[in-house]
Design brief:
Layout lengths: L37 H4 L10 H20 L20 H16 L6 H23 L23 H18 L9 H28 L1 E2 L2 E3 L6 H4 L4 E3 L3 E2 L8 H9 L44 H23 L3 H24 L11 H24 L7 H8 L1 H9 L2 H7 L10 H17 L1 H21 L3 E6 L2 E6 L4 H8 L3
Antiparallel strand pairs: 1-4, 2-3, 5-6
Helix pairs in contact: 2-3, 2-11, 2-12, 2-13, 3-5, 3-9, 3-11, 4-5, 5-9, 6-9, 9-11, 10-11, 16-17
Amino acid sequence: MSTLIEIGEEERQPLLHNPRTHGNEEEIVASSSSIEPDALKLTLNDSGQRLLSLDVFRGLTVALMILVDDAGGAFPSINHAPWFGLTIADFVMPFFLFGVGVSISLVFKKTSSKPLATKKVILRTIKLFLLGLFLQGGYFHGRNNLTYGVDMVTVRWLGVLQRISIGYLLASISEIWLVKNVLVDSPAAFVRKYFVQWIVATLLLSFYMCLLYGLYVPNWEFQPPSLNLSTNGSHAQIVQCGVKGSLEPPCNAVGYIDRYFLGEEHLYRHPVYRRTKECSVNSPDYGPLPPDSPEWCLAPFDPEGILSSLMAVLTCFAGLHFGHILLHCKGQMHRVLVWSMSSFTLLISGLGLEVLGIPFSKPLYTLSYMCITAGASTLILTIIFYIVDVKHFGKPVVLLQWMGMNALIIYALAACDIFPAAVQGFYWGSPENNLLSSSLTLKICISYWMKTLLGHCMLFLKLIFRVLMAWNHCYRPCFIQASGVPSHLYCSRSYFGALLAVFCT
């Protein structure tokens, strides 16, 4: 932190020079949706400029989300971990939250009216929460079902966008009201400026840890799905708990708080622990219940519950810290250095906590999971920042940049099955004969092809090797033997000669 420079609230200059942008000082770059919060707009609202690396990072997150949704079933390493553990899919949500935190620090780096800014934050939080409720609350019935509508008795109150809205609200309020208006001219001044924010983050962490390990979870019961009544009986199933500090699926404090405040009928009905060995013969994939499966395998559990969402707010605070370093550190490479140190500190902390007995768990959003995903977010964004904003290699990632600028629309259309359901509405003769159903066969073929991706990659590398050898042969004679008769041929430097030489190696 020795690279901090003296910057006042009213003296901050535009972060980065972007020759592609020519907006004036009053221009605000609009987002893809009017209901998207400032944290999802990713704009610098005082200069008309954008931090391109943040757009690319968010676009990479959206692309990763689409990959997980479409290929997660084919590759267990891509799909979410059944309960404990860490896979590629488990980084998607923290990446979104981290990006929200970074952009909040940029959007609210100047606040002329705190009450007005707070009002806007609250309104945008409500809109984002309601959008998530509309998309994931059960109103849309998804693929293979052209009906819509939700029973308010069973509506799912929480979801991905709801969690993002909670993180956005708390992080924004802290950035507006808890940041001291002091001059940052030293590392100590930097700490004083954001000290209250760190205290709030520490209190949130302490509250979460106290409830997770100190809350008594009694025995509880649930009504199994009607589809499984023939197997599990028509009466309520009783889950034996009576413990404190359990992190296992049936008896953790995260699920207990959700059942107590939200109600069992409002929780997610297809939790990831149905892919555990106890609940699936095809683990780590979904499958039939084993003969000796425990009763809780059919119980609901919300992966975006109340207590875990409270812990997820800390990922937004980690993003805030990343943005604060961007605002106050002098020099691009100094920023990269400080960010790299922060990322490795978080990564080592996460691994250390896992070794000490706090496992990685996305459904519980454990401390080790928060640290290692926040560290990975910092490291990846640092790399992208160096490539895009320092070295200005932006053209190769222009697609990711576009996806990042339209993340909310892409999420709504792709991840929430809005687009597939709309396409399925056009059919021939019967609802079953539609374009989406016809594409399922293609998807199966694609999944089969992806399972042999490694073999194809090896074949591609072998082809590259042969091409390189071909260019080498362009400067020497090669021999082709056809029907047992050798034929001497000199390869030219033309593309035909190179292609011909491929078959000589």
